Amino acid sequence: MPLLEGLDGINKMSKSLNNYVGITESPKEIFGKLMSVSDQLMWRYLELLSFESLQTIQKWQEEVQDGRNPRDIKVKLAQEIVTRFHSRRDAVEALADFEARFKHGALPDEIPEKIIQAQDNELPLVQLLKLTGLTASTSEAFRMIDQGAVKLNGEKVEDKSAKIMRGESVVIQVGKRKFAKAVIQ
């Protein structure tokens, strides 16, 4: 039996390595994870997971070589897998949500809310990123700001010394998939 690589494209798919797609995850989560696989890894996923024939997959590979966007094929795979473990309706909704978020920059419907206690009247943004769990450390927070991956209320953050005032409520985004609404008290 062939081994399926995880989302990282290197190690075997494993929950402990956090590079897996869980069949009990929400349709939107499954869809998003499958859309995140590399264009190269997508073909292996199609061969091992899809019910499409090898001839159809080969035809798609030729179409991509001739200029078709590989994203179109990933959408087919993601919709097939979501349909298999949830429903066709869920697959259609997951695609609509994905396109709204990643093509049009819309916020997800459900954003976890965190209440953060501030010692002073203001809290450094890098601390807030760590306290909300959007980054593992303040050094990762600095790195993400440097990379342009942090948005505060929809605006890209460039100032690493930014502070949030007590009493404010902000929506924070790190990368394309991590969101939190933070209330500073």
Number of strands: 7
Instruction: Give the C-alpha Rg.
Output: 19 Å
Give the C-level CATH assignment of the largest domain: Mainly Alpha
Structural class: alpha+beta
- Largest sheet features: 5 strands, mixed
Silhouette:
elongated
Order of helices and strands: HHHHHEEHHEEEEE
CATH topology of the largest domain: Tyrosyl-Transfer RNA Synthetase
Indicate the mean pLDDT. 90
Strands of the widest sheet, in order across it, are 1-7-6-3-4
Distance between the termini: 54 Å
What is the percentage of strand-forming residues? 15-25%
- The domain tally reads 2
Quickly give the CATH architecture of the largest domain. Orthogonal Bundle
What ranges have pLDDT less than 50 throughout 5 or more consecutive residues? Answer: none
- CATH homologous superfamily title of the largest domain: Tyrosyl-Transfer RNA Synthetase
